[in-house]
């Protein structure tokens, strides 16, 4: 019975983490460019009382073995990079990636991070930045006398300045792709970092070499589906309850054994 309690306890612990993950997904349902994550599980050690193929007394082999497992454990959180819905904002610096790719962002320590959040702003010196003030890479600086900003699907940035009727090109936005984006490290602030599992970034112009095209005046919303997460939460809750019931049953059986009388 002690084994059953400990085994069921691993299930309760795993489902608690599952609910924590679902809660994080639901909390970010309105976060631009957020990608939901799924928690994966794996079974742990087994105690083998008899191995399959063991010879019997008469020389035959048993077709199956006898083994009892010791529960489960969370194995990985897998981020799903499916494209979210597009929300039209009309803001000239709101950009949505239609397809694969990440915007490149320079962090204060000089390292490069990556994001799907295209809600960009202007800094005091006219540079395009994130909501936290991190620079978009390659850097784009909008001149002071600009009256209109146009971003093409290929990432070219053109501005129309006061007193002129011909736009001028001031920069080119590049996107980065990864062979294994699920291996990227989420660091908060809608940013991801590359890791040894994600591989090195493959940069290029939007719409070329597998990169998605840009859509100006739109934001990509979170890919979290509230109904799916609610169903997952109900399943996790029921699994938690069943594991707690297994602990209670094992405790009841232990009590019965302790109360046996001759």
Task: Give a description of the structure.
The protein has helices at 2-27, 226-258; strands at residues 37-43, 46-50, 66-69, 72-79, 86-88, 95-98, 102-106, 112-115, 121-122, 128-129, 135-137, 146-151, 156-161, 168-172, 175-177, 185-188, 191-193, 202-204, 213-216, 218-220. By secondary structure, the chain is an alpha+beta fold. Strands 7, 8, 11, 15 and 18 form a 5-stranded antiparallel β-sheet that branches. Helix 1 (2-27) packs antiparallel against helix 2.
Task: Give a quick precis of the structure.
The chain is an alpha+beta fold. It has helices at residues 2-27, 226-258, and strands spanning 37-43, 46-50, 66-69, 72-79, 86-88, 95-98, 102-106, 112-115, 121-122, 128-129, 135-137, 146-151, 156-161, 168-172, 175-177, 185-188, 191-193, 202-204, 213-216, 218-220.
| Rg estimate, integer Å | 27 Å
* Mean of all residue-level pLDDT scores: 93
Uncertain segments of ≥5 residues (pLDDT<50)?
none
User: How far do the termini sit from each other?
Assistant: 21 Å
Please count the beta strands (DSSP E, at least 2 residues each): 20
The biggest beta sheet reads:
5 strands, antiparallel
> Approximately how much beta-strand content do the residues carry?
25-35%
Shape: elongated
Estimate nothing, just give the exact number of structural domains.
2
| SSE pattern | HEEEEEEEEEEEEEEEEEEEEH
Overall SS class: alpha+beta
Total number of helices:
2
